[in-house]
Amino acid sequence: MDLETFWWLVGEIRDRAETTDVANDEALANCVVDVIADRLTADELLAFDAVAGALADLADIPAMEAAMFLIEGYISDDSFMDFRDGLILLGREPFEAAIADPDSLAEHLQAAPVKGKADGLGGSVPIAFESITSSVADAWVRVTGTKDEDEFWEATRTSEHRSVVLARPPSSEPSILHDADATRARLPRLAERFVQRFEPRVAAPQLAPAEAERGTERATLFDYQSGLADGRAAAAASGLSNKHIVPSWGRPFWDMGRDNVS
Hints:
globular, mainly alpha
């Protein structure tokens, strides 16, 4: 499958989503499944999935991790995969602009298939999508008539399309996810729009259970930096080899899916 065809299909998905005014991942997934199942054969679906995976790999860059944290307010391995799938569903122009400069997402946040509103002041912007491959699997089951989704996963493992690779210029850009100053310098527009991510958070007062349920938490780079050293020390003490720590609504936690050390 060539890129022109792939991006044309993404355009069809976006048109379907806007027409139906989707409000959540499930509704958007239905649009993805309907469009590709109507237009592609079983083998073409495997090719579509392979191209989507190759495009997602292009977005696996350090500045994109920081951009996701600013936009969504948290990051983990799984959520970053979903974020990159969501970038693809923004369409070709925003996706390619984001690959060239992740800070350009500040201009395209409203391009997200409408799963919510982006106010730039609080809450998260609904870019992430879980996941293109899962939607392809559903479409493949529909097209082939099989009752066993495991056949799709076996087909992806043996498909001639699985080796699709898209060229990406080599980059030596370091991670900036834990560095507030570097994040502001690298992503100035996103940093300005999501300035609350840089604010230290005052400890919440002790509340009665009913009141506490109404409270909200907000992830900040301040929380990330203050939790980073504590988390790594805990990892060293426990003997874990994975030292990648990410913020989760102000609390550090282990992201066991990543092998490298940030």
